[in-house]
Write a structure and sequence with these properties.
The chain is α/β, with parallel strands linked by helices. It contains 10 helices and 15 strands.
């Protein structure tokens, strides 16, 4: 039985806590949040003890692992503290707001001998996993290029709270949603990005950082990918999909909705995804617990998350300088 602490009782902290509750091999024993009302509410809902600060939670001997569900800028400090306390870490994406902080997190967990997993949930959606298996089986031939689009539809101008702050978020929509695209493209394509070109900009003024942009990613295996992000399109137009184009066909992955394939001489066909596959956070939490129990690297490592962050940082540099940026960054 793995005893878990939740650090951060906001919306994503509640999602983590509920997903742990559906796993038979663990229990949530403590919740930490600087907002006592919010923290106590979640703790009571899951039958855990509320503590006001992360430090107090990390000092508890009955906590084996933690989920860090805090603003992005707080990931590094909290992860390093958790590692030094001997706790396994599942940290929400992105791993950090700088590559230096990502390196500190990875090094601290390695030195402490604890698991570090980053919550790149898109690796755990059944339609995404099925698409990866099809790519590996050559279902559309040799992969040529990909088009990855995430539009976060939003009709109103209500606050995005800390996500609207560059200091806390680490940027704009590319750090929030684009990090998912960077990670899943690298995961599907199976190679590292060599060069990045990009343009980003503001739209309705919903956040301090960028609200839209397009990046061109050139991968080492010859695949090219277009990555498009937007925040504030009409809610009805919100979408999250990827088109993967190969020599023998096309896969279209509609996140949360399904998967279709068309090969030469055949129309679009829906691809069945096994109903018994757990999806999203349940699968992510299950993988974290399995990695702890098996003492093995998880499916989304700190190094994976650092690579995704480096792509986003390269997009920012390319947009700022108006040049094509080569990875790895100096």
């Amino acid at each position: 039985m793995v005893n878990v602490g939740i650090i951060g009782a906001g919306g994503i902290g509640r999602v983590h806590a509920e997903a742990y509750g559906r796993q038979p091999s663990c229990r949530v024993v403590a919740v930490a949040d600087v907002d006592p009302e919010r923290g106590r509410r979640l703790a009571e809902a899951v039958g855990a003890r509320y503590v006001p600060e992360a430090e107090a939670l990390l000092a508890r001997p009955d906590v084996d692992a933690v989920s860090i569900c805090l603003p992005h800028a707080l990931h590094a400090e909290t992860t390093v503290a958790a590692a030094r306390a001997g706790k396994h870490v599942l940290c929400e994406k992105p791993i950090a707001t700088s590559l230096a902080d990502a390196d500190r997190m990875i090094d601290a967990c390695r030195q402490a001998g604890v698991i570090l997993m980053i919550g790149h949930t898109h690796r755990f959606y059944p339609e995404h996993i099925r698409a990866r298996l099809l790519l590996q089986d050559g279902a559309i031939g040799r992969l040529l290029f990909a088009n990855d689009v995430i539009w976060a539809g939003r009709d109103g101008d209500e606050s995005l709270q800390w996500r609207g702050s560059v200091a806390l978020n680490g940027g704009g929509v590319f750090m929030d949603n684009g990090i998912h695209a960077a990670d899943r493209l690298r995961w599907w394509i199976g190679a590292e990005v060599e060069t990045v070109s990009a343009r980003i900009g503001h739209g309705r003024g919903l956040i301090e950082g960028e609200e839209h942009g397009t990046a061109l990613l050139a991968f080492a295996n010859g695949v090219t990918a277009m990555l498009q992000q937007a925040l504030g399109t009409p809610r009805a137009t919100g979408c999250c999909y990827v088109e993967l184009v190969g020599t023998e066909g096309v896969l279209r992955v509609d996140t949360w909705r399904g998967l279709r394939i068309s090969t030469l001489g055949k129309p679009w066909e829906d691809v069945a995804v096994p109903k018994e596959w757990p999806g999203g956070f349940d699968a992510e939490i299950g993988e974290f617990l399995a990695a702890i129990q098996d003492r093995r690297p998880p499916a989304a490592t700190g190094e994976d998350a650092r690579a995704a962050l480096e792509i986003i940082q390269a997009i920012y540099r390319a947009a700022e300088t108006g040049t094509t940026v080569r990875l790895p960054l100096d």
